[in-house]
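Illustration: Alpha-ketoglutarate-dependent dioxygenase AlkB-like domain-containing protein.
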Amino acid sequence: MNALRLLTSEFTYLNKRGNHLIYHNSKLLENVQHVVCCFKNFNNYIGPNESSSFIEFGNSVSEEEKPEISKNMLIIDSFLSTEEEKSLLIEIEPYMKRLHYEFSHWDNAIHGYRETERLKWNDDNTKIINRVRDSAFLPGSPQLRHVHILDLAEEGYIKPHIDSVRFCGNTIAGLSLLTDCVMRLVYDKDKSKVIDILLKRRSLYIMRDSVRYDFTHEILPNETSTFKQEPIRKKRRISIICRNEPASSS
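Result:
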């Protein structure tokens, strides 16, 4: 960060040297300031212990495996303010309430749900969705334009599954509204390796790379929903999910 501040200072100085340098150096300054901003956001959102307090590793997960999992399963607590959560709900609730909860799913992955996709948001909520995208995806990463909205009933749950690689890429980012819940990750090639994730209300999770591809994920039903031996009672839950485009087959 000190080096970036020094570069910013140097470019500002050069801009004062002459008009012929102003445009060129101002563009360099703009790029450097963007990098500084990204580093600040990274430090604010993803501190070294930020995700770890929301992750419970099972006994079969080795110490060598934990850093890779923690790197690719990020939890940002209190990503939304109460006002932002309310703003999102005001926009999506009128439509969601017209839908019926379903207790079967096309690939048998979800029980007790209703869902939709949304392309356009009001101005305030567009800013929230853009903040999710900026936090989860690299600049220039092609993203699915439609945002997935999944409304899970209190008695609903999501069964273990891995999202199809045909429909989305290496990163899945989800906001949790209305309630806390527990997401469970299980290594697909060794079912004894289990990781439980506490998803707090108004948090954002970012699941990517090895965790996205190699682990099933699920939302536990209340009968088995615990975190660090404490019961976590899930109420009705709405998740707002952004994904990037699947990798090109070419």
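Reading the tokens back as a structure: The longest strand covers residues 147-161.
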